[in-house]
Amino acid sequence: MVEYSSSEKHNYKFLVWQLLLFSAICWTAIEAPLSFVLNIQAREHNLWWDGIICLLFLVDVALNLTGFYEKEQESAQLITPFLQKEKRPYHKSIWLPLDLVSSIPFDILAYTFGFQGVLVLRLFRLLRVVRMLKVVSLYNSMSMLPHGYKVGLIFCSVLIVIHWIACGWMFINPMVEFDAYTFYNKSLYWSITTLTTIGYGDITPTTNTGRIFTMIIMILGVGTYGVVIGNVSRLIIKADRYKEAKKEKFNELGMFMKHYNIPTTLQRQVFSFYHHLLTERMSDKDNTIISELPHALQSELNIYMKIKLIKNVHIFKDSSTPCLKMIAKNLQQSYYSPNEPIIQRGDVGEEMFIIAHGEVEVFAGEKVVASLKEGQFFGEIALLEHTERTADVRSKSYCDLYTLHKDDFLKIVEKFPALHKKFKDIYTKRKTDSKKAA
Ligand code: CMP
């Protein structure tokens, strides 16, 4: 399961909102032309939808005007300013009038003023579909967007185009002998067979306009088909690239193990480590990304990578930037396999640990007194009380830990007394819990 950090959660909400808008656009794109060709008037049951969609669009305009989107996009887009085109502010762009016009509740107005029979008025709702361009460009610029979203977007767009062509065909070739369902069904079938260049020829144009329309669709069909297939395969290849790299690594490892006759249990451990490294251990991947940068820049970026981790630790949440920087500068990464002892009771404490990934268990004798996970810390008591370790701590799964050496830790809590107090509150509670459990 994908876990979202707080800022990613924020983007996640933003994506859900975009998905809602996108669904409203798709609904209009499907319903408006179909109502037009099937002669469906604005009735009371349509009005609800019209109202809801307009409300959604107006909220969207308001969010755009307040600058909320810019902030969200900034954090969701990983495209650097060098790759981005200069953007006009929303209130000066062509999108504001377009968005406002497309937020007009045409159905409600037509119904209220008695124009529900004027179908062309209902077609004005198609203006809402222009927003689709915005969604597409937004999705394209979001490098963090899951591939599923992008493939879904292409798929929906293709379905809508097929539907429009079917509606165009219905407009040009009215088949009065069929009921609405069969009429649409046949037109959709024609649209798909023509667009995919299959063309069985069982439904053919009989008028000049029909033939011209068919020729246009045939010519466009070949190009569109190619573009869609190209885009989908590009996305699939992109998603597969990572899997391929993993497969390659595993093949190489397999050959290495065979060559040196490594015992099976050790082989399993090595494979299991690599699986963890390639799937979960973000910090290593992140280090590879920045590995080509000069050393000074790498160290600076490293501090911010660590600050992101520290901010997820509850106790450091409200700490000032200088405090976070001081902690980040002194953190060292360490790694543990499952069931490895990390701290042994009675030992001298040399460091405290922050869990970046994985889970550890705290033991009082044989009894587990606590399970600590990502974003939690341990090993602080011996450092603050200048005593021996008070419990055993063992890794439960693969663990990426960050350690803070005793001297650095003590310097930090001395410089930031508020943090010292927070630590004290927590370890006093931990000691009481351990005593109760023992
Ligand atoms: P320290 O005594 O330095 O080393 C063992 C660590 O286990 C200890 O610091 C605490 O960080 C942690 N620990 C001890 N008791 C508990 C508890 N009840 N809940 C959570 N963590 C604990």
* Rg, Cα atoms, Å: 31 Å
Give every kind of bound small molecule, once each: adenosine-3',5'-cyclic-monophosphate
Question: What is the number of beta strands?
Answer: 8
What is the first-to-last residue Cα distance? 36 Å
Could you estimate the helical fraction of the residues in percent? 55-70%
The low-confidence parts are 1-8
Shape: elongated
Give the SSE order as H and E letters.
HHHHHHHHHHHHHHEEEEEEHEEHH
- Main sheet characteristics: 4 strands, antiparallel
Number of helices: 17
Q: Give the strand order of the largest sheet, numbering strands 1, 2, ... along the chain.
A: 1-8-3-6
General description of the model:
- With 438 residues, this protein is an alpha+beta fold.
- The chain has helices at residues 6-37, 44-65, 68-76, 95-102, 106-112, 119-123, 131-141, 147-172, 180-195, 208-259, 264-279, 282-289, 295-311, 321-330, 381-385, 406-415, 417-437; strands spanning 331-336, 341-343, 351-357, 359-364, 367-373, 377-378, 392-395, 399-405.
- Strand 4 (359-364) and strand 5 form a beta hairpin.
- Helix 1 (6-37) runs antiparallel to helix 2, helix 2 crosses helix 5 and helix 10 (208-259) runs antiparallel to helix 11.
- The protein starts with 5 loop residues before the first helix and ends with a helix.
- Bound molecules: adenosine-3',5'-cyclic-monophosphate.
- Adenosine-3',5'-cyclic-monophosphate is lined by residues 343, 349, 362, 369-370, 378-382, 389-391, 393, 430, 433-434.
